[in-house]
Amino acid sequence: MLFARKAPHKKTTKTRRDSFSCKEETEISSMEHLSTVKVSFWFFALFGIIAAGQRAPVQAALEDFLSKEGPSNLFSAVELSYWPQGNSESLNLVAGTTALKGTQGVTTENLFGWGSITKQFTSSMIFQLIAQQKLTLTNTLEDMLPEFFGTKVDNSWPEAWSKITLFQLLNMSSGIPDYVEFLFVLYPGEGPKVFKHPWTPETLVGVAVTAWETHFDECQSRGFCFPPGSSWAYSNTDYTIAGLILSKFHGGINIQEVFQDNLFSRRNSEPDGQIYLANGILPKRVLDAMPESYT
Q: Read out DSSP for 138-189?
């Protein structure tokens, strides 16, 4: 997960953001997908007054949305940045508190986790490599990451994964189990604290490997562990592996640097913030500025 250090938006930056602070990981349920639909309809309903630059109605709608959707979906705050017609700078509105049932209000200086929005960043960067003819959608995991396969490799990935294509990885038809679901299976009793472990991309993929090798029946009952391309299941592991591919094909730098150097800096001549990869250690100034969440 990545975090942005917010700075005043200028018209030239062309970046809109609406962010939510979540207390617990909810990607394993249909609630997340339902919430996404609700957010989308809510946002488009606001489009008319946003375009007209009417600050007060937008602020009221933001607070109404939070009061209706926040408690059931476990987020305590929401932020919206937009450019009213004729304005040279964005308007940045916030609603909510820094903690669920908290009393300290959020400000535009608070930071929010981007969460699964980063999957769009990852796929964009993959397609840059495809445009550069360094990858194709038919490349297999064994083609791209051979170092993770074979009997002589410590903690090797299942041979059944070797022929999964990049296309199947990106559209989540790989069959690889979602590590989020199996963190709770393999670490029972920890609850959201399990996310505090010092995970790396490799160890998170290792959770999925363990699920495949030691909990295969349960893996199938949860909708994973199917032959590649034969079904679909939302899997964070797919995009963790895509991140490993990006890192390798950018000379071994981490995904944080890949995004910063090849996506954001390219879009903005004067980048307005820093991104952080939540690998278990974040600067204290970042943690102190974040509303309560499962991170």
A: T-BHHHH-GGG-STTSTTPPPGGGTT-BHHHHHTT-S-PPPHHHHHHHHSTT
